[in-house]
Design a protein that fits this description.
Shape: globular
CATH superfamily: Vaccinia Virus protein VP39
Bound molecules: S-adenosylmethionine
CATH architecture: 3-Layer(aba) Sandwich
Distance between the termini: 16 Å
CATH topology: Rossmann fold
Number of helices: 10
Length: 213
């Protein structure tokens, strides 16, 4: 089913989100699958560490990862979306260990505000953004290499990047050098790629994970 054909209820049911999850169709559609967020928690979770997610949206990834960390930080530019994120994290019982920051993740001052051991960066470049005329948010993406250099300098070298499935291994390898490029398949569909940097690399090169929701 395409983005245009689907509706909020169908997304909630298909992905297995809580029935009272807050978010508009766009935010729900672009959000992570619970199965992938749970997998990530098992792979990178550590109760001694702090995790920050850049472009956290309504907090689906944070909701599932928070139980595996000492603290989580979510950053998003959109205040309305952050309000939904706050409600979702409260409902999930993890808001007490959450800090939410409203701001542009491409601003040096925002990056310098974040103190975390691991950063997830969800690249805001996804087909529904165009359908919803959210192109103004995505056309400003800085060159990946520059942003990752700043995250390493100001925050941590241990980074996970979520990328649309179309973005190639060669592109990331060329921009970032040592990487693990994990292709994520959910219900037999290539859903996204997860690029691991620093200590989060288990095996350099292309790897695969197959999940079902
Ligand atoms: C990339 S997705 C997030 C999906 C979410 N991380 C998840 O895993 O469920 C879109 C989000 O990026 C945010 N965004 C886009 N550009 C941004 C920017 N420059 N700074 C901060 N947030 C931004 C949007 O407001 C939107 O909520």
């Amino acid at each position: 089913m395409t983005y245009e054909e689907t509706n909020i209820q169908a997304i909630i049911e298909r992905r297995g989100y809580r029935s009272n999850i807050k978010g508009d169709k766009f935010s729900l559609y672009i959000s992570n699958y619970p199965s992938n967020a749970k997998y990530l928690k098992s792979r990178i979770g550590n109760p001694k560490l702090v995790l920050a997610e850049l472009c956290c949206s309504i907090g689906i990834t944070l909701e599932y990862l928070a139980p595996g960390f000492k603290k989580v930080i979510g950053v998003d530019i959109d205040n309305k979306i952050l309000e939904a994120c706050k409600t979702n994290l409260k409902e999930a019982g993890v808001f007490y260990k959450t800090e939410l920051i409203q701001g542009d993740v491409y601003s040096d001052n925002i990056l310098k505000e974040i103190e975390a051991d691991i950063v997830i960066y969800d690249i805001p470049y996804w087909y529904p953004h165009t359908q919803e005329n959210k192109g103004d948010l995505v056309t400003k993406n800085p060159p990946l290499k520059d942003l990752i250099r700043k995250i390493k300098e100001y925050i941590t070298p241990n980074i996970v990047i979520f990328s649309p499935p179309e973005w190639s291994y060669e592109y990331f390898k060329n921009e970032l050098e040592n990487i693990e490029f994990e292709k994520v398949f959910i219900n037999q569909k290539h859903n996204r790629n997860q690029v691991y940097l620093g200590d989060l690399i288990i095996e350099e090169g292309i790897t695969e994970i197959i999940l079902n929701d």
